[in-house]
Amino acid sequence: MGKVGSKPMATLKHCTLWKADRSPSCRAVMMGLDAMNISITEVDVDIDKAEHRAQDIVAMNPFQTLPIFKDRELILTDSHSINTYLAARYHNCNKLLPRDPGGRAVVDQLLLYNCGVLQPRYRAAADPILYENCRFVLPDQIYEIESSYSDLDGILSGRPWLTGSLMTLADISIAATVSTMNILVPVDKKKFPNLIRWMYTMSEESFYSTANDKGLEEFARRIGKFLNVETSSKICYEFVK
């Protein structure tokens, strides 16, 4: 990750993130860090070499999933919990994670939607291609993903961000997932114009280019190889401002 704004990054030498760039969950944390101008130690884990099953990784996270975040003795293994912890403890700003209970509840609600709906639908489509020699996204999976696009398009009707007038951690987490699903099932600009507009706005954020683009391109190349097609993460966002 790189410097994303005019303010110098706060370096937390006691914090470490184990991650794989192609994972949308890892990229959500990376974008969150850059959006908050926080720098921590990062350790790349090669999933293809089964490094996520190494003894030291399993000791921290028996589920053998990424990301893994450690702050001294505290270990967190869910991207949503990591981002909200970092925002609450180290980021003195009320925008990404509102302090008032109502605003925080709205953000949490969307993070739960990402965790409980979007991410499982992404994995259901991607995992058979990446790990089970499948060569296409099944029709039922396409339907489920497009239903999610419809949900998000409705939420974004008449508002610039998912929670309203300000960008929050919910936008960042969901952007990581949706930008990845978009490679598997492209977002139809005619069906989902609000979602396309939001995706374009997110792609213009500096933290998106520093923390999401590289891993997204890696995922696109891998999916393209398995599907025997040229797949790009570069999306043409056409909309009327």
TrEMBL record:
Residues 13-94 form the GST N-terminal domain. SUPFAM superfamilies: GST C-terminal domain-like, Thioredoxin-like. Residues 100-226 form the GST C-terminal domain. InterPro entries: Glutathione-S-Trfase_C-like, Glutathione-S-Trfase_C_sf, Glutathione_S-Trfase, Glutathione_S-Trfase_N, GST_C, Thioredoxin-like_sf. It comes from the Eukaryota. Transmembrane segments: none annotated. One of its GO terms (molecular function) is glutathione transferase activity. GO terms for biological process: glutathione metabolic process. Belongs to the GST superfamily. This is Uncharacterized protein. It comes from Leptosia nina.
